[in-house]
Design a protein that fits this description.
The complex is a heterodimer of chains A (275) and B (248). With 275 residues, chain A is mostly helical. Chain A contains 13 helices and no strands. Chain A has a single domain, classed as ABC transporter involved in vitamin B12 uptake, BtuC (Orthogonal Bundle), CATH 1.10.3470.10. In chain A, helix 2 packs antiparallel against helix 12. Chain A is globular. By secondary structure, chain B is α/β, with parallel strands linked by helices. Chain B folds into 2 domains: 163 residues, Rossmann fold (3-Layer(aba) Sandwich), CATH 3.40.50; 71 residues, no CATH class. Chain B has 9 helices and 9 strands. A 6-stranded mixed β-sheet of chain B has the order 5-6-7-3-8-9, sandwiched between helices. A 3-stranded antiparallel β-sheet of chain B has the order 2-1-4, covered by helices on one side. The chains are: A mainly alpha (275), B alpha/beta (248). The interface between A and B is medium-sized, with 27 and 35 residues.
């Protein structure tokens, strides 16, 4: 076991992927708690599909992938947030439309341009895709997300718990929503390469849901989901290395198993209490 | 000078006027109940008082040194809060955010939160999880949070919705006590009987008209008589009643 981990660390690209992955999962878990509680979980899914479209277009036009994907996803994040707030349009239907359209555009671009990129690595992720620049960017992003979270922790709690109260007592709720959408967009762009378009939203949703099963305070939910997310990523990576399975999928499966365990624990807890 | 002055104000959304030409004054220490049918503009008026929307025309102004971030607000509970993992003290503390812009809660703010939890009788459950409380306890928690945001004016949006009869009575008694301690209360309510029994002033909104006066005046107004199902117990009305009976 320890030997295997040592062997893993002897590969540079694995260390790079591990650093990026752990930082992304930490950011995703922190943001995920607010997104899940505000019923915005699908936004992550929608954004990653838009990201796939943008990456595919960038690849077929020979542009730098991140420089294209970041602005596109940021714009999409604002749009999706507006759609969800606007009660006239059905929010989740709108997200479904946007994400499938973006996915379709991406697939068409990839096949028409005949770029020899592996579609699979976009959809399901690849640890070979991370470059040194990615790792640096990821570090900066993680720092920004954690800093913002600590600095505005109380306000983020207030806005998440009760937006109308917060607005009535003078908090700038629009500003905090925008910041959260922006950070989510950036997290997704960076995490997408490792986890894949179809799987990145799991990093946002699973840790938050798992820790909500057993934690009773907002602060413990945040800490618990951060720790869970990092652990799950590490374990997933090890599993993927030793059993030769795709990284993104392995991480998601570990997350799903943890969720089931936490769920079972919460049910048992409830039963014990009732007795 | 009164706490809130509304002068010939019209309110609504995107050009659709819901409340027309409303003028009234709310003084310090008042207990005002806003009643009326669905769609008569109770919520619109409340949003306007909270500063969430601007009046389409006319003026809504605060007096007596009341600032917009000094209003306590008890909104209706949202479905999001049903499974929200937060402890009672976390929720109550979040009411203190409008005061000072510090990163973390100060000792002073923590003290205010404790005092308000004591006032509403939830001190013993302050470590519990919000989602596991009963409906009445939840409302008390949210009321404590509102008290952390103000010591002058509370705006309550149908505070007894979904509560059982005992919890409802407790809630009304609690609000009455807060009013006696000097906090001005503005409450939107469907419960007209309780409104008349508790409030000092009634604002009745209807499609094109409104009534604003004391609870006693309301009972004797046209609009009030139509809405009160029970007979007024006062001497004048009872006399009219028995007078009619004798003639038959």
């Amino acid at each position: 076991m320890i030997e295997m981990i040592c062997e893993m660390f002897s590969y540079n690209f694995i260390i790079r992927a591990l650093i990026v992955g752990i930082l992304v999962s930490l950011c995703a878990a922190l943001l995920g708690v607010t997104l899940v509680l505000k019923r915005y979980s699908m936004i992550g899914d929608g954004l990653s599909h838009v990201g796939f479209g943008a990456l595919a277009i960038a690849a077929s036009l020979n542009l730098a992938p991140l420089q294209v994907a970041i602005p596109v996803i940021v714009v999409a994040a604002f749009l999706l947030l507006r759609l969800s707030e606007n009660s006239k349009i059905n929010g989740d239907a709108a997200i479904a439309i946007i994400s499938s359209t973006a996915l379709a555009i991406g697939v068409v671009f990839v096949s028409v341009s005949g770029v020899n990129t592996d579609l699979n690595s976009y959809l399901f992720g690849s640890i070979l895709a991370t470059t040194n620049a990615d790792a640096v960017m990821c570090g900066i992003l993680a720092l920004v997300v954690i800093l913002i979270f600590v600095m505005f922790y109380n306000k983020i709690f207030a806005v998440t718990f009760d937006e109308s109260f917060s607005r009535a007592t003078g908090l700038k709720t629009g500003l905090y929503n925008t910041v959260i959408a922006l950070l989510t967009a950036l997290t997704i762009v960076i995490g997408m390469r490792i986890m894949g378009t179809l799987l990145i939203s799991a990093l946002i949703i699973f840790p938050a849901l798992s820790s909500m099963r057993i934690c009773k305070r907002f602060s413990t939910v945040i800490i618990c989901s951060g720790v869970l997310s990092v652990c799950c990523f590490f374990v997933g990576m090890c599993v993927s290395y030793s059993m030769n399975t795709p990284t993104g999928a392995s991480v998601v499966i570990i997350n799903a198993i943890v969720f089931l365990i936490f769920w079972a624990v919460s049910i048992l807890n409830g039963k014990i209490k009732r007795k | 000078m009164s706490l809130i002055t509304i002068d010939k104000a019209s309110m609504g959304y995107e050009g659709k006027t819901i409340v027309r030409d409303l003028s009234l004054k709310i003084n310090e220490g008042d207990y005002v109940c806003i009643v009326g049918e669905n769609g008569s503009g109770k919520t619109t008026l409340m949003k306007c008082l909270l500063g969430l929307i601007q009046p389409l025309s006319g003026i809504v102004s605060y007096g007596d040194g009341l600032k917009q971030n000094e209003i306590g607000y008890l909104p209706q509970q949202t479905i999001f809060q049903k499974d929200f993992p937060a402890s009672v003290d976390e929720v109550v503390m979040s009411g203190c955010l409008n005061k000072k812009n510090t990163l973390f809660y100060s000792r002073e703010q923590k003290k205010t939160a404790l005092e308000n939890m004591e006032k509403t009788g939830i001190l013993s459950i302050r470590k519990k999880c919000f989602r596991e409380l009963s409906g009445g306890q939840k409302q008390r928690v949210l009321l404590s949070r509102a008290l952390c945001a103000t010591h002058k004016l509370l705006i309550l949006d149908e505070p007894v919705t979904g509560l059982d009869p005992i919890a409802t009575l407790d809630m009304y008694a609690l609000i009455k006590n807060l009013n006696k301690s000097g906090i001005t209360i503005i409450m939107v309510s469907h419960d007209i009987t309780a409104a008349v029994n508790n409030a000092s002033k009634i604002l009745h909104l209807s499609k094109n008209d409104y009534f604003y006066g004391t609870a006693h005046q309301y009972l004797h107004s046209e609009i009030g008589k139509k809405f009160m199902i029970t007979d007024c117990p006062c001497d004048v009305c009872q006399h009219e009643h028995s007078g009619g009976g004798v003639q038959q």
